[in-house]
């Protein structure tokens, strides 16, 4: 596939913005998926190709959060197991499900997240000083993480909101640490999903790698922003991005 300079610029800019949005909240794929599709890439191929950028931004963010001691690794195994299983099942479903299922699933998820943040923000933004819990102490977190993994494997857009709800809502991590763990979970199940998409020959490497270059720089900047931001600022940024996700899902073809 031949890529014009204008398309390269579009992918770099949208990738950079998506890297920031996904690291601080979620929903960055609402920018990158249309950017890929406007190039004439079919929806299912764009959905698969987008995972290259998501994986690279996830790796960048995880390294950044770990460098600033904001990545809690004491419970990552139990957190990742249901997420990986869910991601594998979701990716398998996405490879064979009709593309028409993506929009209603995305819109329904965004509306539910916006409602939760508005009505009961403490679910995704625990009060300062709240002690986090272990997965083994909170059986409900297995279901939450498994569903988040399935959603992320099926349609990447908006998965950050679902993961934040599982990590902050059931395990009570503050937003910065929840974001760090969210990016680790996203990285892991995205690699699993990407492997399946590659096996199905649904990935276009040229556009995907250009997009990934932009997401890498966006994620690096976002980590620094997350470390310095006030919890209240992160909460409202999350809410605004959720509303943007609702609008994007409504307007998408």
UniProtKB/TrEMBL annotation:
Compartment(s) of residence: Cell membrane
Keyword Transport: yes
Keyword Transmembrane: yes
Keywords: Cell membrane, Membrane, Transmembrane, Transmembrane helix, Transport
Main location class: membrane
Protein's membrane topology: Multi-pass membrane protein
GO cellular component terms listed in the entry, alphabetical order: plasma membrane
Annotated Pfam families: TauE
TM helices/strands, residue ranges: 79-97, 104-123, 143-168, 180-199, 205-227, 234-252
Superkingdom: Bacteria
PANTHER family, A to Z: MEMBRANE TRANSPORTER PROTEIN YFCA-RELATED (PTHR30269:SF0), TRANSMEMBRANE PROTEIN YFCA (PTHR30269)
Family classification: Belongs to the 4-toluene sulfonate uptake permease (TSUP) (TC 2.A.102) family.
Name assigned to this protein: Probable membrane transporter protein
Lineage: Bacteria, Pseudomonadati, Pseudomonadota, Gammaproteobacteria, Vibrionales
């Amino acid at each position: 596939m031949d890529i014009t300079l204008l398309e390269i610029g579009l992918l770099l800019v949208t990738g950079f913005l998506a890297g920031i949005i996904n690291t601080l909240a979620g929903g960055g794929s609402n920018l990158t998926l249309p950017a890929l599709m406007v190039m004439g890439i079919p929806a299912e191929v764009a959905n698969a190709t987008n995972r290259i950028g998501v994986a690279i931004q996830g790796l960048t963010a995880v390294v950044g959060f770990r460098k600033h001691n904001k990545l809690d690794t004491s419970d990552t195994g139990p957190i990742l197991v249901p997420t990986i299983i869910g991601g594998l099942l979701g990716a398998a479903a996405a490879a064979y499900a009709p593309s028409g299922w993506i929009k209603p699933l995305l819109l329904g998820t965004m509306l539910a997240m916006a409602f939760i943040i508005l009505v009961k923000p403490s679910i995704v933004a625990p009060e300062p000083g709240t002690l986090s819990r272990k997965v083994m102490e909170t059986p409900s977190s297995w279901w939450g993480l498994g569903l988040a993994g399935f959603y992320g494997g099926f349609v990447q857009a908006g998965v950050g909101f679902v993961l934040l709800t599982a990590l902050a809502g059931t395990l009570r991590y503050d937003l910065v640490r929840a974001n760090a763990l969210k990016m680790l979970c996203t990285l892991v199940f995205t690699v699993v999903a990407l492997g399946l998409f590659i096996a199905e020959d649904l990935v276009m490497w040229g556009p995907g790698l250009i997009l990934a270059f932009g997401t890498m720089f966006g994620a690096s900047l976002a980590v620094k922003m997350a470390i310095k931001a006030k919890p209240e600022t992160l909460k409202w940024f999350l809410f605004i991005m959720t509303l943007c996700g609702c609008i994007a899902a409504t307007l998408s073809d």
